[in-house]
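Backbone-to-sequence.
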């Protein structure tokens, strides 16, 4: 339950370490309401706003993004209060239950599989001495890492636990994948990519590692490489719905609507009831409207001419 404690303007300035001039500027730009007292939820919203500005997102872009979110998301009136909003400095996005949506365009960004693995993926250690004990210690440290993630502990503590798992079992590919995901969340794409590649050196047929490495390549605009890893993941696990989803998005960005449509359909066959299914339907419908001869979602489409627009 959120506290009902009220914060004065002086309290807000002290907590956020901002000036009255900065607070008035946010109010003047319509980024927050003019108030003399603030609740705890207001304080959290202002912290989000402060983070956006620290990421050098222009005030006008923030304002337009918030207005777009109110239009695109039903029942959302105060995005900063009701949503988790993030930015890498180039674009403002909102965290939805299973991924991100770019605020201004409504474009769904790729889904990054962050679900923790249930156990360490183990292969035979190089040294048979102490095998049972080392594997047991690796499993304990891995599970401790999972518990830390679930409890909201600092990422560094979970990473340290996974690293301890790797010390006990250097072939624990699952630990590499989870470290990679935590590094990705920190915005450290170099380390995240390194971790996924380490996992694949240990276990080349690790579908999740291929999927997440594909996401890194996608983020870095290395689309052909991203497509290759998504395809490998699907080859290893043909019911991998998220791989179909991200592959469809990648093909749209590459200007290949026919291939994108194929994977939107495949995704919908595997996941027809989640909130993401409605997004997939919308994306597929958009492709059919720009493809000559486009018919129903169950029918074939003609040759592509104009690729989907990107922002």
């Amino acid at each position: 339950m959120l506290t009902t404690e009220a914060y004065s303007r002086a309290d807000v300035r002290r907590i956020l370490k901002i000036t009255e001039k900065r607070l008035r500027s946010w109010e003047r730009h319509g980024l927050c309401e003019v108030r003399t007292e603030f609740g705890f939820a207001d304080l959290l919203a202002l912290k989000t706003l402060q983070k956006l500005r620290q990421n050098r997102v222009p005030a006008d872009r923030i304002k337009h993004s918030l207005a777009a979110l109110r239009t695109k998301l039903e029942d959302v009136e105060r995005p900063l209060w009701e949503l988790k909003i993030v930015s890498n400095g180039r674009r403002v996005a909102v965290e939805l239950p299973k991924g991100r949506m770019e605020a201004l365009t409504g474009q769904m960004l790729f889904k990054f599989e962050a679900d923790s693995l249930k156990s360490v993926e183990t292969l035979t250690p190089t040294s048979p001495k102490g095998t049972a004990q080392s594997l047991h210690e690796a499993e304990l440290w891995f599970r401790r890492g999972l518990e830390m993630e679930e409890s909201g502990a600092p990422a560094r503590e979970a990473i340290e636990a996974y690293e301890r798992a790797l010390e006990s079992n250097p072939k624990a590919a699952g630990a590499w994948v989870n470290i990679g995901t935590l590094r990705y969340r920190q915005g450290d794409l170099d380390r995240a990519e390194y971790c996924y590649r380490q996992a694949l050196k240990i276990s080349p047929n690790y579908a999740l590692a291929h999927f997440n490495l594909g996401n890194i390549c996608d983020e870095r605009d290395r689309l052909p490489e991203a497509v290759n890893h998504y395809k490998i993941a699907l080859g290893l696990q043909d019911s991998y719905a998220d791989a179909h989803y991200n592959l469809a998005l990648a093909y749209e960005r590459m200007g290949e609507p026919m291939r994108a449509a194929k994977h939107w359909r495949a995704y919908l066959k595997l996941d027809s009831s989640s909130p993401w299914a409605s997004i997939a339907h919308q994306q597929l419908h958009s492709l059919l409207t720009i493809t000559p001869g486009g018919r129903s979602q169950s029918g074939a489409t003609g040759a592509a001419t104009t690729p989907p627009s990107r922002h």
